[in-house]
Design goal:
This protein has 377 residues and is of the alpha/beta class. The chain is built from twelve helices and twelve strands. The chain has a seven-stranded mixed beta sheet, with helices on both faces. A three-stranded antiparallel beta sheet has the order 10-11-12. Helix 2 (36-49) packs parallel to helix 9. It binds pyridoxal-5'-phosphate. Residues 59-61, 85-86, 88-89, 138, 164, 166-167, 188, 190, 200, 202 line the site of pyridoxal-5'-phosphate.
Length: 377
């Protein structure tokens, strides 16, 4: 049996007619950049996330970059973030000449630890502390970071909060949606996200009138009006085609999320029934609404051998992420050493994402657990 990590072909079959119809309309209109489909999606996303505004952009990475630009983060500034995330979180900070400051994660949730954020801040010199402009929590795998204490630290110290919600659309923390708790919420429509387009795309949410205006101006090279540049922005525009596809998918998102949650609950049961509770750690559901962009197990021993075994058996899996960011070669000049972020390093060595896509069948899921059991006997 084959169980891919994600099966977008199956999902496409369920929305094919809608997609082809809207695509045809856009081809006929020959209007491909921004425009009414993007505006409609922006309204829908703002409503879905419980934010005042949303601005469609070219990718999740650009959502992060644009948010930092809208706040004016630049050379010599510091932004505190997680070392255990996709590269874009820290990459967007460095690309602006700012310095990522890593604070370790909570080992249970894999999300940025508020205590570690505070500790990292306390360790800085006075002038370094003054240079901290923002904190960027990441809602990893589809579960929100501990936002209340992070927001409290930000308020106390005058930082802006940029939520990297690329993996967490619709996730909740104390009844609030991901992306609605910080100053900016950054989302990705990369195809493998829960709400993916047919290419690259993303969106930024905000409640602030000023940030909203600034995001829209910076999205088109900082021009306002056209050809008059008060700022240096970039091309961060979203395509009409992507927006239209994402709008269609948004109407299905809650039912897909429910399927993911059902699979997650069933995995817990199946691992227990298989007597694997000792060997396989299931994700801790700490916050209100985990949307399971990934179902990530922790394996005490032999993670890489388990992955090879699963690949041989036709089961897709992935390591998110094998090298924590503080140990990436490109950040060597920041001076971090192995052992400095023990929770992130141990997660990088012992976690594995297994299939949790909505369309996965019961027999496919049974097979995944059977294979993991076969590895252990
Ligand atoms: C996917 C992802 C991004 C980047 O999104 P793109 O649309 O691929 O640029 C940023 N942060 C996290 C945590 C992600 O998972």
């Amino acid at each position: 049996m084959q169980v891919p990590l994600l099966d977008l072909k199956r999902q496409y079959q369920s929305i094919k007619d809608e997609c082809l119809a809207v695509t045809e309309k856009i081809y006929e209109s020959q209007q491909f950049i921004l425009g009414p489909y993007v505006e409609l999606l922006e309204e829908e996303i703002a409503a879905y996330c419980g934010s005042q505004y949303a601005v469609g952009v070219s990718s999740g990475t650009d959502a992060l970059l644009l948010s930092l630009m809208a706040e004016g983060v630049g050379r010599g500034d510091r932004v505190i973030t997680s070392p255990y995330t996709f590269f874009a979180s820290a990459g967007s900070i460095s690309r602006l000449g700012a310095i990522p400051v890593f604070a370790d994660i909570d080992p249970e949730s894999y999300n940025l630890s508020p205590e570690q954020v505070e500790a990292a801040f306390r360790q800085m010199s006075k002038s370094q502390r003054r240079s901290v402009k923002a904190v960027m929590p990441v809602h990893l795998y589809g579960q929100c970071a501990e936002m209340e204490p992070i927001n409290a630290l930000a308020r106390e110290n005058g930082w802006v909060v940029v939520e990297d919600a690329a993996q967490a659309i619709g996730a909740e923390y104390k009844g609030q949606r991901a992306g609605s708790m910080g100053d900016f919420g950054c989302f990705s429509f990369f195809p493998s996200k829960n709400l993916g387009g047919f290419g690259d795309g993303g969106v930024v949410t905000t409640d602030s009138d000023e940030y909203y205006e600034m995001l829209k101006i910076l999205r088109v090279h900082g021009a306002h009006p056209k050809y008059y540049h008060k700022y240096i922005g970039g091309n961060f525009r979203l395509d009409a085609l992507q927006a239209a596809i994402v709008s269609i998918k948004l109407t299905h998102l809650d039912s897909w999320t429910q399927k993911r949650q059902e699979h997650a609950a069933r995995y817990r049961q199946l691992f227990e029934d298989a007597g694997l509770a000792e060997q396989i750690g299931c994700p801790a559901e700490i916050q209100d609404r985990h949307i399971y962009n990934q179902f990530v197990i922790s394996v005490t021993e032999g993670r890489d051998r388990l992955r090879e075994f699963l690949t041989e058996a036709g089961v897709g899996s992935e390591i998110y992420y094998p090298v924590p960011l503080h140990l990436q070669q490109c950040f060597a000049d920041l001076g971090y050493q192995p052992g400095q972020m023990p929770a992130a390093e141990s997660a990088a060595a012992g976690t594995l994402a297994i299939p949790v896509f909505p369309e996965m069948s019961r027999s496919q899921q049974d097979y995944v657990v059977e294979q993991i059991r076969a590895f252990h006997v």
